Amino acid sequence: MKVFVAGARCGERFATSFRARESLRIVKCWKYTATSRQPMSSITSRLRAAVACAVLLATHAYAQSDTSGPIATKAGTVYFLRDESGFAAMLGTQAFDRFDARRIAHFDETDASGALTRSLMQTDVGPVLYDFRRNPPLVQRSGKRMTVQRVFWQGDEVVMQTSLGWYKLERGALSKLQASTKVYH
């Protein structure tokens, strides 16, 4: 049993509690006081710094947004406005889609200039992909109710980690992904 007592000398006997005076312990030879600590090794401090950075950046690693607009896109300015049944997706003054959702949640892909090129909208009936590289925007519905957690943009396909597993949405077709060695960034 390791016992640390501030100011005690090695080998000194002391009582562990007031009731059990007969139960005596011998102080181990540790140079440790109540206020001093041994310095952390450089590996431990680097590991703690890496974990702290990962925790802080994990919430910002994926481009999930709840912005309702105005949002600059390749096709024009987009707004998501609440209407009688849910939300209307508006490009300028023209509605190009309507969807049911309790709140706005979308994952966005931007180009080098910062303009939105594609957006995966979380709706009550499943994810919907808006491709703003065309005017009017291309709307692709997944057709399967799921909650999207992360999105990876790979060329024309969208890879999603969802509550039901990993899925790929490409050219309007939703397919479940199997385990593979392909790396998504």
Summarize this structure briefly.
With 185 residues, the chain is mainly β. The protein has one helix at 42-58; strands at residues 13-15, 24-26, 64-65, 71-72, 77-82, 87-91, 94-99, 106-110, 116-123, 126-131, 138-141, 148-154, 157-162, 165-170, 173-176. A hairpin with a 2-residue loop joins strand 14 (165-170) and strand 15 (173-176).
**Low-confidence blocks of residues:** 1-5, 15-36, 53-62
What does the largest sheet look like? 5 strands, antiparallel
Q: Mean of the pLDDT scores?
A: 75
Helix content: under 10%
Count of helices?
1
Shape: globular
Helix/strand order, N-terminal first: EEHEEEEEEEEEEEEE
Structural class: mainly beta
Give Rg in angstroms.
Answer: 29 Å
Widest β-sheet, arrangement of strands: 3-8-9-10-11
The tally of beta strands, per DSSP, is: 15
Distance between the termini: 50 Å
Strand content: 35-45%
Describe this entry's structure for a reader.
The N terminus is likely disordered. The protein is 9% helix and 39% strand. The chain is mostly beta strands and 185 residues long.
Fill in the keyword field for this structure.
15 strands, mainly beta, 1 helix, disordered N terminus, 185 residues, globular, 4-stranded antiparallel beta sheet, 5-stranded antiparallel beta sheet
Question: How is the secondary structure organized here?
Answer:
Elements lengths: L12 E3 L8 E3 L15 H17 L5 E2 L5 E2 L4 E6 L4 E5 L2 E6 L6 E5 L5 E8 L2 E6 L6 E4 L6 E7 L2 E6 L2 E6 L2 E4 L9
